[in-house]
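Worked example

This section walks through a single chain of length 245. The input is the sequence exactly as stored; nothing has been trimmed or padded.
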Amino acid sequence: MIAIVAALPGELSAIEAAASAEGPLTTRRVAGRDLRGGTLCGRPVLLALSGVGKVAAASTATLLVEQASAVILVGTAGGIGTGVEPGDVVVAAELVQHDLDARPLWDRWVVPSLGLSHIPADKALTAALAAAAEVVIGEHGADLAALGLGTPHWHLGTIASGDTFIATAEESMRLRRDLPGTLAVEMEGAAIAQVCHTAGVPFAVARTISDRADQAASVDFPKFLERIAAPYARDLVVTALPWCP
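Given that input, the structure is written out below as C-alpha coordinates.
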Protein backbone atom coordinates (compact mmCIF):
# COMPACT_ATOMS: atom_id res chain seq x y z
CA MET A 1 0.00 0.00 0.00
CA ILE A 2 1.31 3.43 -0.97
CA ALA A 3 0.50 6.37 1.30
CA ILE A 4 -0.11 9.73 -0.36
CA VAL A 5 0.07 12.74 1.92
CA ALA A 6 -0.32 16.51 1.58
CA ALA A 7 -0.38 19.37 4.04
CA LEU A 8 -3.49 21.20 2.81
CA PRO A 9 -6.93 19.87 1.81
CA GLY A 10 -6.71 21.61 -1.56
CA GLU A 11 -3.43 19.85 -2.35
CA LEU A 12 -5.04 16.44 -1.88
CA SER A 13 -8.57 17.14 -3.15
CA ALA A 14 -8.14 16.03 -6.76
CA ILE A 15 -6.37 12.84 -5.68
CA GLU A 16 -9.22 12.03 -3.28
CA ALA A 17 -11.73 12.62 -6.06
CA ALA A 18 -9.84 10.30 -8.40
CA ALA A 19 -9.69 7.58 -5.76
CA SER A 20 -13.38 8.03 -4.95
CA ALA A 21 -14.20 7.52 -8.61
CA GLU A 22 -12.67 4.02 -8.39
CA GLY A 23 -14.64 3.05 -5.31
CA PRO A 24 -15.68 4.14 -1.82
CA LEU A 25 -13.02 5.39 0.56
CA THR A 26 -12.92 4.08 4.10
CA THR A 27 -11.92 6.49 6.85
CA ARG A 28 -10.25 5.68 10.15
CA ARG A 29 -9.37 8.38 12.67
CA VAL A 30 -6.08 7.62 14.38
CA ALA A 31 -4.38 10.01 16.81
CA GLY A 32 -6.31 12.95 15.42
CA ARG A 33 -5.64 12.11 11.78
CA ASP A 34 -8.15 10.82 9.21
CA LEU A 35 -6.56 8.03 7.19
CA ARG A 36 -8.58 7.26 4.06
CA GLY A 37 -8.09 3.91 2.35
CA GLY A 38 -9.07 3.05 -1.20
CA THR A 39 -7.62 2.32 -4.61
CA LEU A 40 -6.02 4.51 -7.26
CA CYS A 41 -5.05 3.11 -10.64
CA GLY A 42 -6.10 -0.23 -9.19
CA ARG A 43 -3.49 -0.03 -6.43
CA PRO A 44 -4.32 0.19 -2.73
CA VAL A 45 -3.59 3.65 -1.35
CA LEU A 46 -3.82 5.44 1.97
CA LEU A 47 -4.59 9.16 1.77
CA ALA A 48 -3.81 11.55 4.60
CA LEU A 49 -3.63 15.24 5.39
CA SER A 50 -0.66 16.08 7.56
CA GLY A 51 -1.38 19.69 8.35
CA VAL A 52 1.26 22.41 8.09
CA GLY A 53 4.71 22.24 9.65
CA LYS A 54 7.31 19.67 10.62
CA VAL A 55 5.68 18.39 13.80
CA ALA A 56 2.35 17.83 12.06
CA ALA A 57 4.10 16.14 9.14
CA ALA A 58 6.27 13.91 11.32
CA SER A 59 3.35 12.76 13.47
CA THR A 60 1.35 11.88 10.38
CA ALA A 61 4.28 10.09 8.78
CA THR A 62 4.73 8.02 11.95
CA LEU A 63 1.19 6.70 11.53
CA LEU A 64 1.68 6.04 7.82
CA VAL A 65 4.94 4.10 8.00
CA GLU A 66 3.26 1.53 10.26
CA GLN A 67 0.85 0.64 7.46
CA ALA A 68 2.30 1.70 4.10
CA SER A 69 5.06 0.21 2.01
CA ALA A 70 5.97 3.65 0.62
CA VAL A 71 5.07 7.32 1.13
CA ILE A 72 4.62 10.03 -1.50
CA LEU A 73 4.28 13.68 -0.47
CA VAL A 74 2.68 16.16 -2.88
CA GLY A 75 1.71 19.80 -2.65
CA THR A 76 3.07 23.29 -3.21
CA ALA A 77 6.35 25.02 -2.48
CA GLY A 78 8.19 28.26 -3.04
CA GLY A 79 10.87 28.30 -5.71
CA ILE A 80 14.28 29.62 -4.66
CA GLY A 81 16.59 28.00 -7.21
CA THR A 82 17.62 29.78 -10.40
CA GLY A 83 15.03 29.18 -13.09
CA VAL A 84 12.50 27.57 -10.75
CA GLU A 85 9.30 29.48 -11.51
CA PRO A 86 5.60 29.29 -10.61
CA GLY A 87 3.97 26.41 -12.44
CA ASP A 88 7.14 24.32 -12.42
CA VAL A 89 7.42 20.97 -10.64
CA VAL A 90 10.33 20.10 -8.34
CA VAL A 91 10.96 16.45 -7.53
CA ALA A 92 13.17 15.98 -4.48
CA ALA A 93 16.45 14.12 -4.84
CA GLU A 94 17.10 14.94 -1.18
CA LEU A 95 15.64 17.01 1.64
CA VAL A 96 17.17 19.14 4.38
CA GLN A 97 15.77 21.00 7.41
CA HIS A 98 16.99 24.56 6.88
CA ASP A 99 16.13 25.59 10.43
CA LEU A 100 17.83 22.69 12.25
CA ASP A 101 20.95 23.80 14.10
CA ALA A 102 22.35 21.68 16.95
CA ARG A 103 25.81 23.28 16.96
CA PRO A 104 28.28 22.85 18.56
CA LEU A 105 27.32 19.24 19.26
CA TRP A 106 26.62 18.50 15.59
CA ASP A 107 27.26 20.35 12.38
CA ARG A 108 24.57 22.70 11.16
CA TRP A 109 21.53 20.99 9.56
CA VAL A 110 22.63 17.52 10.70
CA VAL A 111 19.85 15.36 12.15
CA PRO A 112 21.59 13.92 15.23
CA SER A 113 19.78 10.58 15.16
CA LEU A 114 20.71 10.04 11.50
CA GLY A 115 24.14 11.65 11.35
CA LEU A 116 23.37 13.39 8.05
CA SER A 117 21.83 16.66 6.94
CA HIS A 118 20.49 15.89 3.46
CA ILE A 119 18.19 12.86 3.47
CA PRO A 120 18.05 11.12 0.08
CA ALA A 121 14.68 10.22 -1.37
CA ASP A 122 14.09 6.70 -2.64
CA LYS A 123 15.62 6.37 -6.11
CA ALA A 124 12.92 4.18 -7.66
CA LEU A 125 10.00 6.28 -6.40
CA THR A 126 11.80 9.48 -7.34
CA ALA A 127 12.47 8.18 -10.84
CA ALA A 128 8.76 7.38 -11.21
CA LEU A 129 7.76 10.89 -10.09
CA ALA A 130 10.38 12.48 -12.34
CA ALA A 131 9.11 10.54 -15.35
CA ALA A 132 5.57 11.57 -14.43
CA ALA A 133 6.60 15.21 -14.09
CA GLU A 134 8.06 15.20 -17.58
CA VAL A 135 4.68 14.05 -18.90
CA VAL A 136 2.43 16.16 -16.71
CA ILE A 137 4.03 19.57 -17.24
CA GLY A 138 2.96 19.45 -20.88
CA GLU A 139 -0.71 18.93 -20.04
CA HIS A 140 -1.63 22.14 -18.21
CA GLY A 141 -0.26 24.86 -20.45
CA ALA A 142 -3.65 26.48 -21.04
CA ASP A 143 -4.44 26.59 -17.31
CA LEU A 144 -1.06 28.17 -16.58
CA ALA A 145 -1.46 30.71 -19.38
CA ALA A 146 -4.87 31.69 -17.99
CA LEU A 147 -3.12 32.67 -14.76
CA GLY A 148 -0.42 34.61 -16.59
CA LEU A 149 2.25 31.93 -16.15
CA GLY A 150 4.72 30.76 -18.78
CA THR A 151 5.83 27.38 -20.07
CA PRO A 152 6.45 25.03 -17.14
CA HIS A 153 9.55 22.92 -16.50
CA TRP A 154 10.39 20.17 -14.06
CA HIS A 155 13.49 19.98 -11.87
CA LEU A 156 15.24 17.37 -9.77
CA GLY A 157 17.21 18.50 -6.73
CA THR A 158 17.22 19.60 -3.10
CA ILE A 159 14.10 20.73 -1.25
CA ALA A 160 14.51 22.53 2.08
CA SER A 161 11.91 22.38 4.85
CA GLY A 162 11.39 24.44 7.98
CA ASP A 163 8.84 25.80 10.41
CA THR A 164 9.18 29.28 8.97
CA PHE A 165 7.12 30.46 6.02
CA ILE A 166 9.67 31.94 3.62
CA ALA A 167 8.01 34.98 2.10
CA THR A 168 10.62 37.70 1.56
CA ALA A 169 13.44 38.14 -0.92
CA GLU A 170 15.88 38.52 1.97
CA GLU A 171 14.93 35.14 3.44
CA SER A 172 15.18 33.48 0.04
CA MET A 173 18.60 35.00 -0.54
CA ARG A 174 19.75 33.71 2.85
CA LEU A 175 18.66 30.18 1.95
CA ARG A 176 20.40 30.37 -1.42
CA ARG A 177 23.56 31.55 0.33
CA ASP A 178 23.45 29.00 3.14
CA LEU A 179 22.26 26.00 1.12
CA PRO A 180 23.48 26.52 -2.46
CA GLY A 181 21.71 24.41 -5.03
CA THR A 182 18.43 24.21 -3.11
CA LEU A 183 15.54 24.47 -5.57
CA ALA A 184 12.46 24.89 -3.39
CA VAL A 185 11.35 25.54 0.17
CA GLU A 186 8.32 24.26 2.09
CA MET A 187 7.36 23.16 5.60
CA GLU A 188 6.88 19.37 5.70
CA GLY A 189 9.05 17.31 3.35
CA ALA A 190 12.24 16.88 5.37
CA ALA A 191 10.27 15.87 8.48
CA ILE A 192 8.49 13.13 6.55
CA ALA A 193 11.83 12.16 5.04
CA GLN A 194 13.38 11.79 8.51
CA VAL A 195 10.56 9.54 9.76
CA CYS A 196 10.57 7.39 6.62
CA HIS A 197 14.36 7.11 6.58
CA THR A 198 14.38 6.03 10.22
CA ALA A 199 11.64 3.47 9.59
CA GLY A 200 13.23 2.15 6.41
CA VAL A 201 10.16 3.04 4.33
CA PRO A 202 10.77 4.41 0.81
CA PHE A 203 9.54 7.94 0.20
CA ALA A 204 9.45 10.57 -2.53
CA VAL A 205 8.35 14.20 -2.77
CA ALA A 206 6.98 16.26 -5.67
CA ARG A 207 6.11 19.92 -5.24
CA THR A 208 4.37 22.36 -7.59
CA ILE A 209 5.92 25.81 -7.39
CA SER A 210 3.33 28.44 -6.46
CA ASP A 211 5.63 31.46 -6.05
CA ARG A 212 9.23 32.56 -5.74
CA ALA A 213 9.16 32.55 -1.91
CA ASP A 214 9.24 36.35 -1.76
CA GLN A 215 6.84 39.23 -1.38
CA ALA A 216 6.33 39.52 -5.14
CA ALA A 217 3.89 36.62 -5.56
CA SER A 218 1.90 37.32 -8.73
CA VAL A 219 -0.69 34.53 -8.57
CA ASP A 220 -3.68 34.24 -6.25
CA PHE A 221 -2.83 31.18 -4.13
CA PRO A 222 -6.35 29.73 -3.67
CA LYS A 223 -6.94 30.00 -7.41
CA PHE A 224 -3.53 28.47 -8.15
CA LEU A 225 -4.26 25.64 -5.71
CA GLU A 226 -7.57 24.80 -7.37
CA ARG A 227 -6.59 25.21 -11.01
CA ILE A 228 -2.96 24.11 -11.04
CA ALA A 229 -1.59 22.48 -7.89
CA ALA A 230 -4.44 20.05 -7.22
CA PRO A 231 -4.64 18.75 -10.82
CA TYR A 232 -0.83 18.58 -10.96
CA ALA A 233 -0.72 16.50 -7.79
CA ARG A 234 -3.38 14.12 -9.10
CA ASP A 235 -1.77 13.74 -12.50
CA LEU A 236 1.71 13.27 -11.02
CA VAL A 237 0.51 10.48 -8.75
CA VAL A 238 -1.74 8.79 -11.30
CA THR A 239 1.01 8.85 -13.91
CA ALA A 240 3.70 7.67 -11.49
CA LEU A 241 1.80 4.85 -9.80
CA PRO A 242 2.17 2.30 -12.64
CA TRP A 243 5.95 2.87 -12.50
CA CYS A 244 6.20 2.65 -8.71
CA PRO A 245 7.67 -0.56 -7.28
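What to look for: The two ends are 11 Å apart (CA to CA).
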